[in-house]
């Protein structure tokens, strides 16, 4: 989708890198234990190249930023590889 000009909304964390286990807490729920982190975050992915991803971060003073691609991908995978985009007709 990104290659077609559509931005992608992704779930990541606020550090844009893999988090250590110490950043997680365990909640006991009716469905069982759930691992959560208060570092969960979402951004709009607007571009990428071989080394970086380019995103719009609503929490940043300068909302458009680049992040090293490898660390961003690690954080995205750790948070469950969640993303939403759209396709125009």
Keyword list:
five-stranded antiparallel beta sheet; mainly beta; two-stranded antiparallel ribbon; globular; single chain; Peptidase_C39-like; C39 family peptidase; 89 residues; Cathepsin B, Chain A
General description of the model:
- The protein is mainly β and 89 residues long.
- It has a single domain, classed as Alpha-Beta Complex (Cathepsin B, Chain A), CATH 3.90.70.
- Helix content is 11%, strand content 44%.
- The chain has 1 helix and 7 strands; from the N terminus they run E-E-E-E-E-E-H-E.
- The strands form 2 sheets. Strands 6-5-4-1-7 form a 5-stranded antiparallel β-sheet, with helices on one face.
- Strand 5 and strand 6 form a beta hairpin.
- The protein is globular.
- The chain starts with 7 loop residues before the first strand and ends in a 5-residue tail after the last strand.
Number of strands: 7
Q: Largest sheet at a glance?
A: 5 strands, antiparallel
Outline: globular
CATH architecture: Alpha-Beta Complex
**What is the helix content?**
10-25%
Organism: Neobacillus rhizophilus
Domain Peptidase C39-like: 2-58
Protein name: C39 family peptidase
Task: Write a brief caption for the model.
The protein has 89 residues and is mainly beta. The protein has 1 helix and 7 strands; from the N terminus they run ββββββαβ.
Note the topology.
Blueprint: E1 8-13, E2 24-29, E3 32-37, E4 40-48, E5 52-56, E6 64-68, H1 69-78, E7 83-84
Antiparallel strand pairs: 1-4, 1-7, 2-3, 4-5, 5-6
Organism: Neobacillus rhizophilus
Protein name: C39 family peptidase
Domain Peptidase C39-like: 2-58
């Amino acid at each position: 989708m990104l290659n077609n000009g559509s931005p992608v909304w992704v779930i990541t964390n606020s550090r844009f890198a893999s988090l250590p286990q110490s950043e997680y807490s365990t909640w006991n729920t009716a469905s069982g234990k759930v691992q959560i982190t208060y570092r969960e975050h979402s951004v709009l992915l607007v571009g990428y190249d071989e080394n970086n991803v380019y995103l719009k971060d609503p929490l940043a003073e300068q909302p458009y930023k680049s992040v090293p691609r490898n660390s961003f991908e690690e954080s995205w995978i750790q948070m469950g590889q969640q993303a939403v985009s759209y396709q125009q007709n």
